[in-house]
Amino acid sequence: MSGPVIDIEGLTFAWKQGPQVLDIAAFRLEAGERVFLRGPSGSGKSTLLGLIAGVLAPQAGRVRVLGEDMSALPPSRRDRLRADHVGVIFQMFNLVPYLSVTGNVLLPLRFSPARRKAAGGDAKSEAHRLLARLGLEDPSLLNRRVSDLSVGQQQRVAAARALIGAPKLIIADEPTSALDADARDRFIALLSEEVTRSGASLLFVSHDASLAPLFTRAVDLAAINRAGVRA
Amino acid sequence: MTALFSLAWASLLNRKGSVILTIVAVALSVALFLGVEKARSGAREGFGNTISGTDLIIGAPTGSVNLLLYSVFRMGGATAEVSWPTYQKIAAREDIAWTVPIALGDSHRGYRVMGTNLDYFKHYKFGGGQSLSFAEGKPFDDLFDAVIGSDVARELGYTLDTPLTLSHGLGAADLGSGHENRPFRITGILKPTGTPVDRTVHVSLEAITAIHVGWETGAKNPLADTIPEEMIRSFDLTPKTVTAIFAGLERKGTILTTRRAINTNRGEPLMAIIPGEALAELWNVTSVAERALLAVSAFVIAVGLVSILTSILSSLNERRREMSILRATGARPGHIFFLLVLEAGLVGFLGAALGIALVHGLIALFAPMLQAQYGVAFSMGAPGLVDLAVLGGVTLASLLIGAIPALTAMRRSLADGLSVRL
């Protein structure tokens, strides 16, 4: 994979009738990188992730993901790109409550034929393999209701879901904020290992600066976002 | 689409409690609508099946619906009768092949008694040409013989040779003002027909005359009971009047001319009706009420559909997070839209299916009782076209109504982005 996975130039974004939230001159994420993006809550991190994932559209500037200009693409193509190439992990409440653990991991395959293909003929065992890699090998866990899992377990299910079908980019939005320090470090280690193994890139967003050493590169959102200066 | 279908299904299962309530609401509304519709078509079919093969019904002038109702359906009563000589004149007409005179007016424990002759068992046909047949015994032969319909036998527990007495008039119970001193003997029990015949006690015309010996003034002569049976048997028991006449024509083509000839009969005024025509007239009268009932029950279905809308709309807030998870894992806005539309459609479909099952179950359970009590014959058996149309219609309507919450959810998921501020 040549070229950057994410390439942002002159991006501005504001919520309807609100003040400008983002104004980023340039930001790049190269293939294979695991980048830590630090920013306090309310600094526009989630908005930026929404723009990168293509569920939000910028007012000005360019967001290229895997070489495609997200703002120039029609919405359906943006959605398709995200479905095929982007895995997302949220802070918490990551899982669809009415699906089993396995069902949640398989969810992206419902919407993306490309990832369905990449996951191989037996998607279920691929899901179970990923869950096992992330430390969820107990077979009794797989058909449990997700609400019965601990937060740490839920986050690892979310990670397996983001990883299945080998997307090129994993976006993680404060996935460890509800975990204790021990679980947090273990989660990041496992996630990094699997991201590297699958050849994906990782954009990991958190307010917790102490996590920075666990990644290949750390970027402070405040340093690149000109709109983030607040009173 | 199959991916969404299983998602919609799982989502409904997750909210079982409220979903089941909504399904039940839809089912009840559908059951009401279908119940009304089936009662209506059952009534029509039952009425339509009651008489067949009879070309004309002749009686004293009255409304044609009234004549049909009292002569065939044993509902209401005749205001006037046809004299015996006039009956004989009609029976002798060249264009008329057969006639069956009937005399009504008495009852036995709430069941109508009909005087007639043996031709009745030969010519009366129902349900598209079936003749009456005997489950047991044979037609009446002696003066005080009676043939009863299957319901009379079953409900009163009568068997052959059970004695029975008639009462004067149509009182629901024997009030003693009757013919209890002239007991009849049951010689025959008819097979079930699904028509008012099942609820009729048949005796000979002469028997009707015989039990009214001593009633010539219209009320019972105190000495009537003192006349011994042997004496009555020696009387001339030819009836003075009959209530109505069923007639079959030599050639169907003459039906209108024959009818006109009878209607303009010089001497005693008469009225002849064509059963099918009078039935159509009856439907005309009842169709206003039928349509009103159907409209009301259609509105009840609409209420059921609105309950689908309410339940989905009220669930949207708590499902906002779920929608953005779906979006993040690759669902397009269209997927969100169809997910909710499918949920609505599934609830509507299940509700309609349950409603149809409910109606058919209830009909299977209660049809015999309804038939016995109200004479409404519900057609049992496999679900028909009407059921399919209702199933399809309700499902389609719920899909359409599902578009409302679906649009809301889709718009919200577009505005929310990946993160929902909870």
Describe this structure in words.
The complex is a heterodimer of chains A (231) and B (422). Chain A is built from 9 helices and 9 strands. The radius of gyration of chain A is 17 Å and the shape is globular. With 231 residues, chain A is an alpha/beta fold. In chain A, the strands form 2 sheets. A 5-stranded parallel β-sheet of chain A has the order 6-7-8-3-9, with helices on both faces. A 4-stranded antiparallel β-sheet of chain A has the order 2-1-4-5, covered by helices on one side. Helix content of chain A is 38%, strand content 22%. Chain A has one domain: 3-Layer(aba) Sandwich (Rossmann fold). With 422 residues, chain B is of the alpha+beta class. Chain B has 2 domains: 174 residues, no CATH class; 218 residues, no CATH class. In chain B, strands 1, 3, 4, 7, 8, 9, 10, 11, 12, 14 and 15 form an 11-stranded mixed β-sheet that branches. In chain B, strand 3 and strand 4 form a beta hairpin. In chain B, helix 1 packs across helix 12. In chain B, 43% of the residues are buried. At the A-B interface, helix 1, helix 2 and helix 3 of A face helix 1 and helix 11 of B.
Brief rundown of the structure:
Chain A contains 9 helices and 9 strands. Chain A is α/β, with parallel strands linked by helices and 231 residues long. The N and C termini of chain A lie far apart (42 Å).
Radius of gyration of chain B, Cα only, in angstroms? Answer: 31 Å
Q: Low-confidence segments of chain B, ≥5 residues, pLDDT <50? A: none
Output the number of helix runs of chain A.
9
Q: Biggest interface pair, residues each?
A: A-B, 32 and 25 residues
What is the quaternary state of this protein? Answer: heterodimer
C-alpha end-to-end distance of chain B: 30 Å
CATH topology title of chain A: Rossmann fold
User: How many helix segments of chain B?
Assistant: 13
Structural class of chain B: alpha+beta
The averaged pLDDT of chain B comes out at 86
Q: What is the CATH superfamily of chain A?
A: P-loop containing nucleotide triphosphate hydrolases
Specify the CATH class of chain A: Alpha Beta
Terminal Cα span of chain A:
42 Å
Helix and strand pattern of chain A: EEEHEEHEHHHHHEHEEH
Rounded average pLDDT of chain A: 84
Residues in helix, % of chain A: 25-40%
Share of residues in helices of chain B: 40-55%
The biggest sheet of chain A amounts to: 5 strands, parallel
**Major β-sheet of chain B, in short?**
11 strands, mixed
